[in-house]
Amino acid sequence: MPSTKSYGIPSAANKAIGGEPTIHYLDFASRGRGQVVRLLWEDAGIAYTDIRYDFDEYPEYKKTVIAEKNPTTTLPVIELNGKVLTQSYAILRHFARQLGEYDGETEEEKYLADMICDIGSDCKRVLNDVTDLGALSAFVDLFPGRTLFVNAFFSPDKDEAYPKHQETDRNRFLKALETHLSSHDLSRQGPYVIGKEVTYADLVIYQVMHDESLTQDGRKGLQEYPRLKQLVDAFEDRPNVKKFLESERYLG
After folding, report:
1. 3-state DSSP helix/strand/coil % of the chain, to nearest 5
2. Residue 47: in which H helix or E strand, if any?
3. Which of 98, 90, 77 is nearest to 14 (CA)?
């Protein structure tokens, strides 16, 4: 059976979005696109219910519970007041607009946040090749082409594939992000993507860094990317994020 837990106390932010949302996602620790939605809720002080499916049980629930809610059968799926929301980055932008924050104010700020978010999405872009992931058939079923990270990290040849991914694809995207954040007039005002104010794009980039294990071990993997490190440090220092990372809700 999926695990169901409720977190937080309803707040003004819950009122702003119209209630207490429920998220359906894989039991994939504190990783993936479902986690970036949870991060927004945690930072904004939104009470929510978290339903997690383990990899073994998910294929059956995908055919029933998830298919009834989302015709594409992808996760995360959000339920709120009888409505179903899908597509993680569209969900982030939707809640950002409802909250009146996390989205920038000027058109230039909004464009920059959207652009950096798209680069983050490219970092996790879907590949078309097929690799047998063995016991992780649920993940293959969820992401038919899979992402750069998933393809490498869960490959049967992980000992070779993941280091190669770290040295090639990952470094290419880290350099691109570092260049954008270091060269744009708004970003140079730091520490966030558009300067002093956090946006949903910061959450996306942070989650990419987290899932690539670049936020741990003293940020050793980000030493060559000081602007990205600045963003990660600032985001983790946000009061509600800091509380979350120190709580039992954070699963690594």
Report:
1. 55, 10, 35
2. none
3. 98
Give residue-wise pLDDT tens across range 217-245. 999 999 999 999 999 999 999 999 999 99
Q: Which residues contact 208 (CB under 8 A, 6 or more apart)?
A: 120, 123, 124
Q: 52 has which bridge partners?
A: 3, 25
Task: Enumerate long-range contacts of 17-21, CB under 8 Å, 24 or more apart.
Answer: 17/46, 17/80, 17/95, 17/98, 17/99, 18/80, 18/81, 18/98, 19/80, 19/81, 20/46, 20/47, 20/48, 20/49, 20/80, 21/46, 21/48, 21/49, 21/78, 21/79, 21/80
Using alpha carbons only, what angle is made at residue 142 by residues 141 and 145, rounded to the nearest 5 degrees? 75
pTM metric for this prediction? 0.87
Residue type, 173: F
Instruction: Summarize pLDDT for 127-185 with one digit per residue, the tens.
Output: 222 223 333 444 444 443 345 555 555 555 656 655 655 666 788 899 999 999 999 99
